[in-house]
Amino acid sequence: MNGVVLFGVRSPLVTEFEESCDRAGISVIAGVSVSGAPRMAGAAPVVALDEVGNRLGGEGYLACAFSPRRRRALADQAEASGLRPAPALIDPTVILAKTSRIDEGSFINAACVIGSVAFVGMNVLMNRSASLGHHSVLEDDVSIGPGAIMAGNVRVGRGSMIGAGATILPDIRIGCDCVVAAGSVVNRNVPDGTFVAGNPAKPRPFDWGRTSLAVADGE
User: Fold this and answer.
1) Helix, strand, coil distribution of the chain in percent, nearest 5
2) What is the Cα–Cα distance from 65 to 25, expressed in whole angstroms?
3) Long-range contact pairs involving 38-46 (C-beta distance under 8 Å, separation at least 24)
4) What are the φ and ψ backbone dihedral angles of 71, each rounded to 5 degrees?
5) Residue % of the chain over a pLDDT of 70
6) Does this model's pTM top 0.90?
7) Would strands 137-138 and 119-120 be described as parallel, antiparallel, or unpaired?
8) pLDDT band at 73 (very low <50, low <70, confident <90, very high)
9) Catalytic residue IDs
10) Closest Cα to residue 128, out of 106, 150, 145?
């Protein structure tokens, strides 16, 4: 990857993307602000959404948001504007097994560990110091919080969110559009669309519109 467009630069998370690009020697071509003031730390130009087609058409983008739903919405806007998903951004401090695979549009932040024969889908975000065990799978649009641990042979379904410091025990399946609260320990499979919390994690009432877990971080 020689350069990348950061899409959704009102998010505070954009500075983490910038830092990883800098460490990896990847230039940030521009940031795209969908709404509000940008929070970029670097000197790359900021482009309004309606300028993208004329100035950045065909460039590769990374969507900057932690919430899976918001990141997917940003990705859809970016592609509708003529951008294409960039190759995965993998911080140079990541420990990455040679037999693992990471799809385009994903961001693996500093100090993460990805084990052997693991697979990370498109538009996934693994935040600082998270770990993914051997033969584990993160489907498209998943978000993993800082320090979360997914043991061996874990599968996390599309659009799910694992909170900071959560632990998913071996051979567990997390369904699609699930939320695992920060610090939880998951020792049994979680059906689609379920919010779990605690040790051991149990289903709890959940409202995507009201909980802070689901609020987009800026953009």
Assistant:
1) 15, 30, 55
2) 22
3) 38/9, 38/10, 38/14, 39/9, 39/10, 39/11, 39/12, 39/14, 39/15, 39/218, 40/6, 40/9, 40/14, 40/15, 41/15, 42/18, 44/6, 44/18, 46/9
4) -65, -40
5) 94
6) yes
7) parallel
8) very high
9) 134
10) 145
